[in-house]
Design goal:
The chain has helices spanning 26-29, 42-45, 50-54, 58-71, 73-106, 122-159, 165-208, 212-245, 251-261, 265-291, 293-297, 301-336, 343-353, and strands spanning 2-10, 17-25, 36-38, 366-369. It is an alpha+beta fold. The protein has two domains: 1-38 and 359-379, no CATH class; 42-341, no CATH class. Strands 3-1-2-4 form a four-stranded mixed β-sheet.
Amino acid sequence: MVTNYVVILPTLRDHSIQIKVIKIPLHLSTFTPYKIIFNNPPEIAMDQTEEDMKFAGFLGIFNQSFKTIFSWKKIFAQITLAFILPLTIIFIIQITISHHFFWKIDNNTIPYHASDSREATATEWLYYALFTIAYFILLTVFSILATAAVVFTIASIYTGREVGFRNAIKVIPKVCKRLCITFIFIYIAQFIFDVIGTFAMAIPRIIFGYSVLSVLIIFIILSLYIYGFLYLSVVCQLASVVTVLENIHGFKALKKGKDLANGKKKVGMRIAFVLYGILVGLNVVYILFVEYGHEVYRLALIWRVMIGILCGILLLMLFLLFIVTQTVLYLVCKSYHREAIDKLSLSTFLGAYMGETVVYPRSGEEIQLGRDQPPSEQV
């Protein structure tokens, strides 16, 4: 004997109702009663349909990202405090220590005093190298934690699943290893890109010295480098989302991210340009008004502390926005390439993270109400 499980799911395009009948043996069904599952309609979970998201542009992605954050303030606040706040603190500590090392030990003070300038010792360089290694390890760890939690949360909202901080926490151990592998490939790709860019900008100076022609060529190469960096960042961000929501990771995730970026490359690069521009701006403000606010602008300690806190809060919000926008961009790219996101399949995939039993329907057991069906499929 078998027991029927009925799953009712709204579809994306025409808002018809999709019914899946799942049959399982009676001895398995005795542990769980009959149940009918109603998922939230697409416009409640995410207020754009798949067709709308397909044509979402620069402003549309930002609009959907902000709406998602403000509609689910509690869960995103919890994720931010748990994972993104430590990430922000680590980032600020790195800025502070790095600039103290390079400006006050190795090169100059502000204002410049030749008598204060000295070369860093081998021990100081060793300490700085160890600090840099520790920084990248901690940065990677909290980036993985934040990415897993935010991406899973947005996917749960999209599919109408239960959204909660505990659920997001449960996902992290399941995707941690896969995300770590993907991040290693991302670091390798960025390292290779940086090495190529550095050599490309060094060649004109070696050949032409400090001439006007050399400066012009370096400026052109730098422009191409920025363009390439923005494109690579979009691919890497999409690869991170792919690793969480699809069953691939590492190099395959990067390749999938590259394929998804095609067609929405300019939109993704504009988003990355704005976010990285804000990041650089906050970095500069922190260095000028917090690190060297007393030496340059004669700011009192209280003002430097207040500016530092403001920069920290803005960085906190920016890092959250980075992950949310890259997840929304992933959904937009999937819709653009007509890779329909089956809400039931995605919900089942997310359910596997939560340890739920996954039972797949047999072929031909799917019925969709509101559409013309062949006689054999009508109920």
